[in-house]
Amino acid sequence: MSSDYPGRDYVSPFDERVRLAEPLARRPATVSGRSVALIDISKNRGAEFLDRIESQLTQAGAVTSRWAKEIFSKPAAPALIDDVAAGSDLVVEALAD
Amino acid sequence: MVSLDGLTAGGAALLLFVSEECPTSAMALRNLGPLCRTWDQAGLTATAIFEDPLDVAIRVARRTGWTGRVVSQDPPYETSRAYRLLSVPTSVLVSRNGDVSGTVVGWDHGALSALIDQAGALTAGAALTLPPPVEPFWKPGCSSKAALDPDVAAAISRSDAADEMEEMFERGWTDGLPVVPPTRQRVEAMLAGADGSASLGLVPPSMGEATLERLASCAVLAGCRPAYFPVVVAAARAMLDPAFNLHGQAVTTQPAGQLIVVNGPVRRAIGLNCGMGALGPGSRANLTIGRAARLLVTLLGGAMPGMLDRATLGHMGKVGFCIAEDEEASPWPPLHVERGFEPEQSVVTLIGSDAPQSISDHRSRTPEDLAYILAWAAASTWSTNWWPLVEPSVFVICPEHAEMFRAAGWTKQQLREFMYDAVRKPAGRLRRGETTPIVSAADPAADISKWASPDSIVLLVTGGEAGRYSAVLGPCTGMGAHIVSREVESG
């Protein structure tokens, strides 16, 4: 069970801790009656895209709420994630340009 | 000899004999690997028995997603011989009392499914998950090392038979170029007694923890001398400052890289080039310090192009981009002094930056003409009609150009303000294609500058003493990425 490479004790540049992939949440059969958070990541024309999605979701019976990240290039603030998670069943995030 | 003790406690054990060099072995590990955890819960223990050294076995198991146990055999591969192996992969089902209940040679989806069904019968009748029915359903394996003459097997397993440089590529410890293998001895020399477990923080986007030891490993891989390491550490600290927004820079589709500017006595002490070819090849210190910093982002941050680095084009400065200012040739206070440090401090400054665009000017005879030429070269950086730029544009002024400003007594601020005033267009002429909300909202006759303010212009002096070629490096735009400086700590 020993290595055949006794002179080769390398130091890994990686963080070797294994990260397990988060499973995708179950997809609902319908959006009717669900609260849907629409998050604008603050990229150009993202709001335009969300306007159209919102209109379709409303027609389908969903209750929507609008949120926005401070800037597209940084992770969302923890408070924003907490608020969205607490008040919504579903989330749509818009990436646009 | 691999012991079966404990492996059959749940009712049965599946032994998968494999070898690193065998593609069919890799396929078997990939196809069966994800199932091992569920099998284990049902009482079937799956073990990959490698005819390779343990470090190789662990690496291959990780790469292929094998979730079962891993063991390694030394020559002459007694376990393989005990099971009379001729080729790998070979799957052997062993019952609780150690008897062989079935064997499948090579990759044979049908036979393996039957073998796993058989295992289910041995483990209290549990239905075990079968490998997915994906082609190829059958593939022959490779010769087992146990089938070789023992002396031959021992000879091909010796460390000097392997190619260490190629192994670095196999491990993924590279930015695409050959690297210096980070042996413990080399990494310890890089650390020079520092505590390798000290953490510099998490490296975005994948948030690997940058311990000093891992950074030292990156520095060895990059080809740094130990004397460069304090500069690498300072660069890493600056990059990991949230104000620099490495997260955004690392994953963007923009080409931007991380420009490292070094000031102070350390430039001369470690031989950083701030003379001829200051932005180009030839200097080990410049090239390897820049590369080490980028390896940190690529390996610990996971920002490998095509993976989490989503750059459409990228640029060669993303291999590594470290320059030093020629403070002695400059008529102005150096960058670090402008940023509040003392001249005798050694400082690293990080700037998110695009590739350099050369600016030739051998004909200007007044500082006004030269400043105009330099400034207008930046007019189309980022995008032709994207005015004004907020993030910093970096002008690298060559010594001959700098001399003209010195002779005329121009200060840095004077030059910045001249450039800011010189590059202007009416908003109406900027409304084509990609443009800014400021241009869209402005009166068509309103003058718009290329920069939001003179402070968006960074001026550095470096380069060969002959030749009138300066350069402008466009900004990394829209990231909220600020310039960050850190002092180089000695020892």
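qc> Chain A touches chain B at residues 1-15, 19, 71-75 (CB under 8 Å).
qc> done
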